[in-house]
Amino acid sequence: MTRTPVNVTITGAAGQIGYALLFRIASGHLLGADVPVNLRLLEIPQGLKAAEGTAMELVDCAFPLLRDITITDNPNEAFDGANVALLVGARPRTAGMERGDLLQANGGIFGPQGKAINDHAADDIKVLVVGNPANTNALIAQRNAPDVPAERFTAMTRLDHNRAVGQLSAKTGALVSDIKRVTIWGNHSATQYPDIFQAEVAGKPAFEAVGNDQAWLENDFIPTVAKRGAAIIEARGASSAASAANAAIDHVYTWVNGTAEGDWTSMGVVSDGSYGVPAGLISSFPVTTKDGKFEIVQGLEISDFSRARIDASVKELTEERDAVQELGLI
Ligand SMILES: NC(=O)c1ccc[n+]([C@@H]2O[C@H](COP(=O)([O-])OP(=O)(O)OC[C@H]3O[C@@H](n4cnc5c(N)ncnc54)[C@H](O)[C@@H]3O)[C@@H](O)[C@H]2O)c1
Ligand SMILES: O=C(O)C[C@H](O)C(=O)O
């Protein structure tokens, strides 16, 4: 195989999502079964030893596509020549921590990482932020990388998108592959709006496929999807890891390889003002992708019911942006 390897940087590589992610990247699921990869693992000093252990396991898998592994606690080295960056490592909220403290701590991670991407990444860099609060962390990184086109910074709402598809499949009995055009709007948080009004289930409008059941939509579907992260933490005693890693793989694969005809996906992307979302915010939208680029789907009819929910989530994003602005992080 003569293709040039793609440099993929993963931050928080020794964490639980990192462990679920690295083996799938190395086996070709992120970019394609014919694309060799170099892995660049960024950790804090306390995480380096565990990252080394994972690297030993990666070598032991003898993946044909895996060319090289670098392990470092230096962002400049980790992002040097990076073509794809998955920003997973973040400061979790701990007991007694105020919201401002959390944003400040994450600013201390995503600001310098944005700058390192700005100064060292390859010209075609694509960034996915997974670490929470994902949309605002992505905004911090993006604003600290003024030389990188803003649209290269994205936040992960694909897990929410996949959760919505999973719930629709469970309700209707339809195959996941027969569910199209679900949308997650807004923030990756409990205010997000999973929208089925544009979606199709086995060729029928999704709302019709769920029996026009407004009570189910409002009291079951929307809260189940929006609060799924918390439900998993409650059940597992730790936040979602394999499903989050899977969504990160899906996000990048779709961004690079394109959405199917007649379908779209959900990504947190820099708003261009579409659907009344203030320009510059990183908010989730329905997007189509082609040739490594995405476009926000235009012209969708938004009902009053949907409008109120989109506005509520966008208001939260605006507040987060204002808070990091006040802290001088952007
Ligand atoms: N967007 C989503 O859908 C979604 C879903 C699930 C989890 N998450 C978030 O993903 C993040 C990671 O989750 P996890 O379960 O893997 O956590 P984890 O605690 O298991 O792992 C995080 C890793 O990041 C490392 N880290 C911390 N600061 C770092 C830095 N500055 N540079 C490099 N590495 C650093 C830690 O050492 C640790 O190994 C969390 O913020 C979590 O809330 C997001
Ligand atoms: O880590 C969390 O708070 C939850 C996570 O974002 C999830 O959606 O599973």
Tell me about this structure.
The chain is an alpha/beta fold and 330 residues long. It folds into two domains: 6-155, NAD(P)-binding Rossmann-like Domain (Rossmann fold, 3-Layer(aba) Sandwich); 158-320, Lactate dehydrogenase/glycoside hydrolase, family 4, C-terminal (L-2-Hydroxyisocaproate Dehydrogenase, Chain A, domain 2). Helices cover 43% and strands 18% of the residues. The strands form four sheets. The protein has a six-stranded parallel sheet with strand order 3-2-1-4-5-6. The longest helix is centred in the C-terminal third of the chain and has 23 residues, at 304-326. The N and C termini lie far apart (43 Å). The model has no long low-confidence stretch (mean pLDDT 96). Bound molecules: nicotinamide-adenine-dinucleotide and (2S)-2-hydroxybutanedioic acid (LMR). The site of (2S)-2-hydroxybutanedioic acid (LMR) has 7 residues, from helix 9.
